[in-house]
Amino acid sequence: MSRTIMGFDFGTKSIGSAIGQEITGTASPLKAFKANDGIPNWDDIEKQIKEWQPDLLVVGLPTDLSGRDLETITPRAKKFANRLHGRFGLPVELHDERLSTTEARASLFERGGYRALSKGNIDSQSAVVILESWFEALWSE
């Protein structure tokens, strides 16, 4: 059975999202949600969850290049993951997102040049990178 997985790239001003299928290991960008100091409009996220009916949510965990927590953003991403679980009752996993933004920028630039590099595009593409690297980690176990 293939699960539908929704990924999130948490940020204090914008939260990117993506949807992926476990069977193919690929993900597509969805919309980026505006956030007010890390707090999204939960109704918007609820609409998207109802529309896609994911089996699992994956939230990118921001760490430094050594994999250590970043003082301000890491705990907030964990809190966001806990709130997702609390509100929607879906299983939530955290996934190391060390290079997701860099990879997302490179991938968008290859496809669309500078015009493709809007903040929302980058955040949702980062969510794609997070989800696809989560699939890779799943399969390499």
From TrEMBL:
It is found in: Cytoplasm. Its EC number is 3.1.-.-. Its main location: cytoplasm. Gene3D superfamilies: YqgF/RNase H-like domain. Keywords: Cytoplasm, Hydrolase, Nuclease, Ribosome biogenesis. InterPro entries: RNaseH-like_sf, YqgF, YqgF/RNaseH-like_dom, YqgF/RNaseH-like_dom_sf. Residues 3-104 form the YqgF/RNase H-like domain. It is an enzyme of class 3 (hydrolase). Belongs to the YqgF HJR family. Could be a nuclease involved in processing of the 5'-end of pre-16S rRNA. This is Putative pre-16S rRNA nuclease. It comes from Vibrio zhugei.
